[in-house]
């Protein structure tokens, strides 16, 4: 697949990245903007929930360990909302634990990525879960 095709494929997609680490947010944002995505960032679940209402993203990446509202709680709230439950949620964690992955599934997440993630993992998750 040519890079023009790849760029076209992700161009204009609204991707939300929720992480309390500025470094992770900036890394993901830089990668995704290069692919033509519109990137919305939030540093915790509470900030994210108000932005989801305004922006209606196509896919959401959420860190598990965050203050105030963790990734599991954030995902559960998104998935319990009739309007937003169709949005794919990808969990991000620095732990690669079976328990964490299972818990992510229970709250309704589509996939689990271990940090540090690669560009291919990030883009692959978007391609796998966003239906145009």
Euclidean distance between termini CA atoms:
18 Å
C-alpha-based Rg, rounded? 14 Å
Q: Residue-averaged pLDDT, rounded? A: 92
Number of domains: 1
Determine the strand fraction and express it as a percent band: 15-25%
Structural class of the secondary elements?
Answer: alpha/beta
- Helix % is 40-55%
The main sheet comes to: 5 strands, parallel
User: How many strands?
Assistant: 5
Strand order of the largest sheet: 2-1-3-4-5
Shape: globular
Q: Count the DSSP helices.
A: 6
The first-level CATH class is given as: Alpha Beta
SSE string, helices as H and strands as E: HEHEHEHEHEH
Remind me, CATH topology? Rossmann fold
What does this structure look like?
The protein contains six helices and five strands. The chain has 132 residues and is an alpha/beta fold. The protein has a single domain (3-126), classed as Response regulator (Rossmann fold, 3-Layer(aba) Sandwich), CATH 3.40.50.2300.
